[in-house]
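User: What would this chain look like folded?
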Amino acid sequence: MQFCSGTDMEKNYKSAERIGTIAYRALLEEVYTSPKPGLVDLYSNGAHKDMDVSTFERSADALKPYFSAMALEGIKHKENPKTIFSNIRGLGLEAEQAMFRATAGVNTHKGLIFNMGILCAAVGACMEEDDTVNLDSLMEVEQAMVRETLLKEVYGMRDFTSNGEKNLKRYGTMGARGEAISGYESIRMISLPVMLKGRSEGREWNLIKLQTLFALMSQVDDSNIIARHDPIVLKEVQEIAKEFISEGGAYQEEAVSMLKSMDQEFIERNISAGGCADLLAVTIFLTELMCHQPKKCPDEILFSN
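Assistant: Here's the prediction, encoded as structure tokens.
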């Protein structure tokens, strides 16, 4: 049996707290990104009548310690990825209850508790191994943690209760579970390259986030849009996003006014790309881990202790 020294324990707790803080900031950065059509932001509540920016702020405050706790599980159990996943799922249920208490029962971040929790734990496990993390090693750990378990769940599911599970039954889409099973392919292949490119070009941060969101909206099968409507409306939203990007996206001169008008349309039609908003937050989280200094975003190093 190995025992950690007091110094090692202190180091682990500080590292876990840092990871949790970065996750917390990513949640706030997502909601502050404005204007996001149909989504809660600094301009409007989007297609949501039960939440606003302050609701998201209270939720993020409540979730911060749980993200740190999940990172600590990764640090403590780096040799046993499946144990990490089992343990953080218990923490995730506790985090959901903390979120609901903070928001008076409103679901602001349930999907993000799942996705961000997995990656906080994976970062903790990788960092504990050699004090640095690269994208390949991070996803290798994430896959060892979740893939086998989630595949069994998806193909053995009999009770379909959440929106994502109902979408799976009706349309075969896997939602948050699918992202985790794929090793967050949407982030690796779509959103992270867009965000890092914007950073390297010195673009304004809010516009980078908007451009990244629309890159996701143009390609991702957003579970929230499907749950509120159907795959036909999802396809329409994807085409709207593709057209916006083809015209210059968030970097065109009239982008903000165009997005405000689009927001009104999405509100009237009750469209909210909440799944893409979650992926935006995770992309921000990974980007902050990669970019310790302004405009310095090495491809390989995500976290250095």
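Confidence is low (pLDDT under 50) at residues 293-305. If you want, I can go into more detail on any region.
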